[in-house]
């Protein structure tokens, strides 16, 4: 018996539609009446690299979790490549913050990266040769190809962050949601991630990066979305700066 990764079928993307389109979005955590995201309307075109900027508690992680289907939507809609949320599940990958992972969980580096292939194989299905090849290539891109058999708890913080990114790469998604990938990492990891973002953009993939370092990295992105208290704010934007949620010139 095959246990599917999710109950939605995998739909082909509408190449004329935005990679991500959000309308009047409201999101609240279970058993809470307070909105974590309130009235957000925005879009990201395919192939763009966008910074998601805001202080802690602004709603950045909440927005990512809603887009990836981890939190229910109270109102509004999210469409991925023209389809309702979930229909293109395999085309979206969410990289959580380092602190959200249980690093004591008994898996090796390679096993964690291979989890990025479950969306294609289903839970508990045996991995195929191609899956292992993809996982090894992702580790190589992150300069971790010699650490595949190590337990994830034996890695440094920067190496653990790179393992998470390798898992995201192994999914071969078209829309990547990266939650603070450069937070508290070493210089080597920062350089590797910077090069990766350039490569992702060159491949025509779409990436949204939650970051605290936008002032230092502004030239890396096509635009930015500023959040505060779960709402989009535009203060501090340059008049000629393209940003998520406005028409591009």
Index terms:
249 residues, alpha/beta, six-stranded mixed β-sheet, 7 helices, 23% strand, globular, disordered C terminus
Percent strand: 15-25%
Instruction: Report mean pLDDT, rounded to a whole number.
Output: 84
Oligomeric description of these chains:
single chain
Poorly predicted segments: 1-8, 235-249
What's the shape? globular
Give structural notes.
The radius of gyration is 18 Å and the shape is globular. The chain starts with 19 loop residues before the first strand and ends in a 16-residue tail after the last strand. The strands form two sheets. A six-stranded mixed sheet has the order 6-7-8-3-9-10, sandwiched between helices. It is α/β, with parallel strands linked by helices. The longest helix has 16 residues, at 187-202. Helix 5 runs parallel beside helix 6. It has seven helices and ten strands. It has helices at 60-67, 109-114, 118-121, 129-141, 157-170, 187-202, 214-217; strands spanning 20-28, 35-44, 49-53, 73-80, 83-84, 92-95, 175-179, 206-211, 223-228, 231-233. It is 26% helix and 23% strand.
Short account of what is shown:
By secondary structure, this protein is of the alpha/beta class. The chain has seven helices and ten strands.
Detail the topology: elements first, then pairings.
Layout: E1 20-28, E2 35-44, E3 49-53, H1 60-67, E4 73-80, E5 83-84, E6 92-95, H2 109-114, H3 118-121, H4 129-141, H5 157-170, E7 175-179, H6 187-202, E8 206-211, H7 214-217, E9 223-228, E10 231-233
Parallel strand pairs: 3-8, 3-9, 6-7, 7-8
Antiparallel strand pairs: 1-2, 1-4, 4-5, 9-10
Helix pairs in contact: 4-5, 5-6
């Amino acid at each position: 018996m095959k246990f599917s990764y999710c109950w939605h079928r995998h739909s082909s993307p509408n190449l004329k539609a935005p990679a991500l389109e959000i309308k009047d979005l409201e999101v609240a955590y279970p058993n809470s009446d307070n909105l974590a995201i309130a009235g957000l309307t925005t879009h990201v075109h395919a192939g763009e690299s966008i910074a998601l900027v805001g202080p802690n508690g602004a709603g950045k992680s909440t927005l990512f979790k809603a887009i990836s289907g981890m939190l229910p939507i109270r109102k509004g809609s999210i469409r991925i490549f023209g389809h309702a949320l979930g229909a293109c599940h395999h085309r979206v990958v969410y990289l959580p913050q380092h602190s959200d992972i249980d690093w004591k969980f008994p898996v090796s580096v390679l096993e964690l990266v291979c989890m990025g292939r479950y969306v294609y194989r289903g839970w508990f299905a045996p991995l195929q040769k191609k899956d292992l090849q993809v996982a090894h290539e992702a580790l190589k891109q992150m300069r971790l190809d010699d650490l595949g058999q190590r337990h994830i708890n034996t890695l440094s913080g920067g190496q653990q962050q790179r393992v998470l990114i390798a898992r995201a790469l192994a999914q071969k998604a078209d829309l990547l949601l990266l939650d603070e990938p450069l937070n508290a990492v070493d210089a080597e990891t920062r350089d590797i991630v910077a090069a990766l973002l350039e490569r992702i953009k060159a491949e025509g993939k779409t990436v949204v990066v939650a970051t605290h370092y936008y002032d230092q990295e502004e030239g890396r992105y096509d635009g930015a979305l500023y959040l505060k208290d779960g709402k989009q704010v535009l203060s501090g934007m340059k008049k000629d700066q393209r940003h998520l949620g406005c028409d591009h010139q």
